[in-house]
Amino acid sequence: MKKYFLLFFLLLLLPLKAVFAQSDGSQNNNEMKVFRIESDEVIDHDVFAAAERVDIEGTVNGDVYAAGGQVYVGGTITGDLLVAAGQINITGDIGQNLRLVGGNVTINGNVGRNVSLAAGNVDITGEGEITGGLAAAFGNLNLTSPVGKYLKVAGGNLTVANRVGGDVEAAIGVMRLTPNAQIDGNLTYWSDNRSSLDESRVAGQVYFNRTDMPARGRVRDAVGRVGGAMSVGSFIFTFILGLVFLWLFPKFTRKTVGVLREQPMKSFLWGIATLFIFIFVFIVLAVTILGIPLALLLAFLYGFASYIFRIPVIYFAGSWLMQRFGDEEREILSLTAGLIIYWILILLPVRMLATLVVTFMGLGAAFLAFRKKQPAASATARGRKKA
To answer: I want to staple 377 with a disulfide (CB 3.0 to 4.6 A). Which of 69, 71, 255, 318 is the partner?
Structure first.
């Protein structure tokens, strides 16, 4: 559910600027609703694309970050591919890792390293090959491609119809091994009922764990072994959303980061104040029948702001870390470093505290940045950059 929540917010930003990219100008649609790299194009650097439809038929010598309603990749990507979309179709070759979050996913190409995905329906066909391992969270997964290493999954229905070169760990509703399946390692699965499996398809041992009511902790443990596919999906979505935010609102981001540098405590306190203001206004509106729709709209806007304004805080944390190591401030590296710091914190027992601090600081800094005059903010940003 969380991946669809994040997808909604990302797509909400797309109409503001339908397509953005650091490529050699691949947009062919006058309304800027389609991003396309033609089959004869060769891009020698990373590509960032957000549109209603993304088509990559050419060659990208670098990483690709794509978001939209539909993403189709039929070309060659020598680096990583990270995608957040409703419909994802991969028929080309990916040189490194493949990270996907979407509704319906089809993979029909070769992947040089590992695949991590979170989706509703997944079809990985036999014409391609995953050299590394596969970690996935899904509703339905049909796996007919060979997987070179491990398979770690959590979902509803799983069908394995090809070779898996390592161990298989699955927290699953129903699992099926076809006559073409071959698991070179052990098979460990958690389910309500034992599946009718042809255990001759497994070279190692088969371990079944029943997920009855007193043993739900074992289900959570199994899902944890999946490698955090859903967390990986959320990480990817937040990263892509951060790229969109930085691209669309660079001046506002600089202003907000400047406020965080100068007034971190004031930002935090103002963020807490916004919560009380929201509660007060919501109650005032909700007590009347006519005000209920406005109260719901206000709740939606406050929730949206609470999530989106975390990005400047995450970026600020990453830029601070880069400066500590003596590196110059670069947007993508700063965002990545900050997001890693944030994700580490929310995986620790301090998750709630970290989330509240980041949220309130983001809300407060954004509020103060809106109030701050542009010339003063620009001067502050320049001064900090020189320092």
So the answer is: 255
